[in-house]
Design a protein that fits this description.
alpha/beta; Rossmann fold
Length: about 210
């Protein structure tokens, strides 16, 4: 019997996913979390077979939470759920340790299939994205994939208009550390200013 933990800050989304899973005869427990802190806390209460994790969790981001989950429970399969198309975040999610990635639009039709696959040790991507991955083989990956999870998170915050001081408070880090992240981002992305960073984020649809 499968024990699945759903993590999403939208109650309607959690309710819909839970209903789908509860209709399956081999699903025993479906837990719910609405924040990164709740995910990490509930992960300690059960031997979960899989976690469904929203990539845009409030506070601590979904990718950051994913990395922490994989650090604590390296064998725990995590299916990333996102409103963003796969070509924007999937590669980064898999690099951080995800076992699967799916958009919220496809969740109703593909959720059970994805869960069964990752709980058996496999990886899940949609057929359409798998075809795109094959087509992209041999090409240079998007430069954003060279950023660490923290660097990527800082880039999104800068693009949203937050100051380094605000980001430092939100991430519980020093301003010096955030400034170092910014410098690395500019170097890796071959940019010269926050304006270029913001333009890139908006152009590539990386903001919610």
């Amino acid at each position: 019997m499968l024990r699945i933990l759903i993590a999403d800050d939208h109650p309607i989304v959690r309710r819909g996913l839970k209903q789908i899973l509860c209709d399956e005869p081999d699903v025993d427990i479906v837990g719910e979390a609405q924040s990164a802190d709740e995910v990490l806390a509930l992960a300690e209460t059960q031997n979960w077979d899989a976690v469904i994790l929203d990539i845009t969790m409030p506070g601590r981001g979904g990718l950051d939470t994913l990395e922490e989950l994989k650090r604590r429970y390296p064998d725990l399969p995590v299916l990333m759920l996102s409103m963003h198309p796969e070509d924007q975040y999937a590669a980064r999610a898999f690099k951080a340790g995800a076992s699967g990635y799916m958009t919220k639009e496809s969740a109703l039709d593909e959720l059970v299939k994805a869960i069964r696959k990752i709980t058996k040790g496999g990886r899940y991507v949609s057929e359409a994205f798998a075809e795109r991955l094959v087509a992209m083989m041999g090409e240079v990956p998007p430069s954003q994939d060279n950023l660490s999870v923290r660097e990527f998170q800082v880039m999104l915050m800068i693009a949203s208009g937050k100051t380094l001081s605000q980001i430092a408070v939100e991430m519980a880090l020093s301003i010096k550390t955030i400034s170092t992240y910014r410098t690395r981002i500019l170097e890796k992305m071959q940019m010269k200013s926050n304006a270029e960073m913001t333009h890139y984020v908006i152009k590539n649809g990386l903001v919610k």
